[in-house]
Amino acid sequence: MAEEGRHYFTADPDVASRPGTVGVRLDDVQLELRTDSGVFSHSRLDAGTKVLLENAPLPRNRGDILDLGCGYGPIALTFASRRKRLRVWAVDVNERALGLVRENAQTAGLGNVTACTPDEVPDDTVFGTIYSNPPIRIGKPEMHAMLLRWLPRLQPGGSAYLVVQKHLGSDSLAKWLNAQGLPTTRLLSQRSYRLLEVQKPSDLPQ
Ligand SMILES: C[S@@+](CC[C@H](N)C(=O)[O-])C[C@H]1O[C@@H](n2cnc3c(N)ncnc32)[C@H](O)[C@@H]1O
What we know:
This protein is α/β, with parallel strands linked by helices. The protein has one domain: 3-Layer(aba) Sandwich (Rossmann fold). It has six helices and nine strands. It has a seven-stranded mixed sheet, sandwiched between helices. The longest helix has 13 residues, at 95-107. Bound molecules: S-adenosylmethionine (SAM). S-adenosylmethionine binds at residues 8-9, 40-41, 46, 49, 68-71, 74-75, 91-94, 97, 118, 133, 135, 138, 146.
């Protein structure tokens, strides 16, 4: 596995710091983000992340946004720019990534971003929309546990958007989510990526 792949999902990456920047260039949002080694895709905007940023619908409600597995923050900061009145939770296990998100949010003047570890999100927080380029490489049991921890915290009528590479199991993930009672459809197939939409029916209790 490449250097960046070995360390990015640990709490405290043991690779030396090698700061850099990545540009997020979209029709509506332009960001120059600080990155570092030991953080997912630190030298370029990940192709799957770009598919999500260009195609995932904007939030359809006013609930908080969650970027699950935020890395250095391209998804969190893009949606924080698009919806400045909504709180965006940027959650990751990687402390170096969280430090970068805080720095990037401050530089971009985005006071609506909270970057923290999963355990630091208050238990009663629910989300109107979840966006994620999920950490498939942590392994299926861990990733399933992560999704079952957060997707049920969508508020009624809320939606989650997950970008997953076809060869990393997007179709079986969609099947598994449906089997868990989380209605999931394929919104888009672009390049080798699938964008999945998970919906929380509006008539179900939390
Ligand atoms: C595929 S990367 C996406 C990073 C970033 N969102 C991007 O698009 O560049 C997935 C991220 O999930 C994080 N992660 C791994 N396990 C996690 C967990 N249990 N809870 C939250 N985030 C986790 C990794 O550290 C990594 O930063």
